[in-house]
Amino acid sequence: MAESYYIGMDLCSDSTQISFYNDISREPETVNQLNNKETYMMPNILFYSRDIGDWYVGSEASEARFKEDGIILDELYKNAKSEEIVDVDGMKYTFRQLFLLMMKMHVDTFLYRYEGATVKKLVITIPEYSKDLYKVLSGFHKELGIPEDAVEITSHLDSGLYYIFNQSSDLWINSVALFDYNADGLHYYRIDITRSKQPEVISVTHEDYSAQFNMALFGNDNILMDATFANIADYEMKKTYISSVFLTGLGFSEKWMNKSRNILCQGRRVFAGQNIYTKGACYKAVGGEYEEFYKRFFVETKENVIFDVGISSGDEEDKFIPVALGGRQWYNIRGKINIILDDTDKITIIYRSRRTEQEIREVVKLHGIPKRPNKTSKFSVEVEFEDPHRGAVLIKDVGFGKLFPTTNKIYRKEFEV
User: Fold this and answer.
1) 291 contacts: CB under 8 Å, gap ≥ 6
2) How many C-alpha atoms does 31 have within 13 Å on its Cβ side?
3) Which of 43, 111, 351, 383 has its CA 20 to 30 A from that of 71?
4) CA nearest 9: which of 35, 34, 44, 36?
5) Residues 195-223, buried b or exposed e (16+ Cβ, 10 A)?
6) Which residues, other chains included, contact 52 with Cβ-Cβ below 8 Å and sequence gap of 6+?
7) Angle at 172 between CA 167 and CA 174, to 5 degrees
8) The three-state (H, E, C) secondary structure of 279-331, written as one string
């Protein structure tokens, strides 16, 4: 029987990494390149070989370009949304099609190692949310021939939290530090846990050091880079007690840390790895027990919606009926319900804090709906978000069968919480 895998994919501008969940070790395992076991990073390039009339991807594409006659295609991530036509040996593609082809071939290259293997759940983690990229990736399930809900898109921040909080709990007794040093420079994230409140709260502080700490700034001067990072690390480590430090990104792949390493290691455990985000995405793909920290903690990040949106039941009990539940990234929250009104032309919208359960209420009057008998006015209520604080509630008249056809009226109530 063919294996079906939970997969985490870290998609960056220049490279992709893939991890799969190993049922035996009960840990994510990162896939190395077929022709280079020393690295997990697969270049985001395609090569069409005229010699064999077929495609190569990643490191195999890098090698084939020097051995065979063909066409190399790069910057596919940058142009992922583009519908510009590209001629490949007489065949017409858009950049968008080529980007999705590259993505599919990355996944297929992994599945090829396990003959007949399939995808059970795939979580794609990207550096940060981009509306255009999200839209392109939202259709990737079609390329793989799997259900829409079998593919999820998240951020480096979210998958980083999944990774950290699925490590031994003694690593996060106190705050946790995450340094991410990539081509765009250094970013620092401090993950704090407030245990004095119920539920316990995870909050994230982000410091952007990219202007004063980036690869272009130091060139080959590793001594200056080490000294500068040592000053940053010393400054951040003195702010609060840090249990553990995680280092990720290409900038940490070279052995330049001396003074800074000594500062980081003072009473703390330090881990360096290029595959933190892809492993975190893999934990998220598995779900189940690996989602426990999201149930235990109230997670506050710049992406997460910290309130629920619903409506009042409209009766004496005045119950909260959820439409969209927060606690996740705003771009991954969707909610829609159908309701039947009983002798009223009003709907009470409720915004309820997930931490305190404090409520904000707004009443929407449905103007222009013809008078109908009780319990024959049916509406859909849908919530959409623009960011973690703003969005809109859409109320649509859907009618009640042939007896009371829809008026096609739509009521839009924007909110900011």
Assistant:
1) 284
2) 28
3) 111
4) 44
5) eeeeeebbebeeeebeeebbbeebeeeee
6) 68
7) 175
8) HHHHHHHHCHHHHHHHHHEEEECCCECCEEEEEECCCCCCCEEEEECCCCEHH
pLDDT at 347 over 70: yes
Q: What share of the chain is helix, strand, coil (3-state, %, to 5)?
A: 25, 40, 35
Using CA atoms, how far apart are residues 379 and 400, in angstroms rounded to an integer? 9
What is the enclosing helix (H) or strand (E) of 133?
A: helix 131-137
CA nearest neighbour of 379 among 368, 390, 387: 368
What span, in angstroms and rounded, lies between the C-alpha atoms of 218 and 185? Answer: 11
Angstrom CA distances, 158 to 14, 124, 391, stand at 21, 11, 21
Radius of gyration for the chain, computed over Cα atoms and rounded to the nearest angstrom: 25
Model-level pTM? 0.91
Q: Are strands 242-248 and 269-272 parallel, antiparallel or unpaired?
A: parallel
> 3-45: per-residue pLDDT in tens?
899 999 999 999 999 999 999 999 999 998 766 666 789 999 9
Q: How far apart are CA 171 and CA 157, in angstroms?
A: 18
Residue 81 CB burial class (10 angstroms; 0-12, 13-18, ≥19) = middle
> What is residue 61's three-state secondary structure?
helix
What gap in Å lies between CA 367 and CA 348, rounded to an integer? 14
* Cα separation, 232 vs 252, whole angstroms: 15
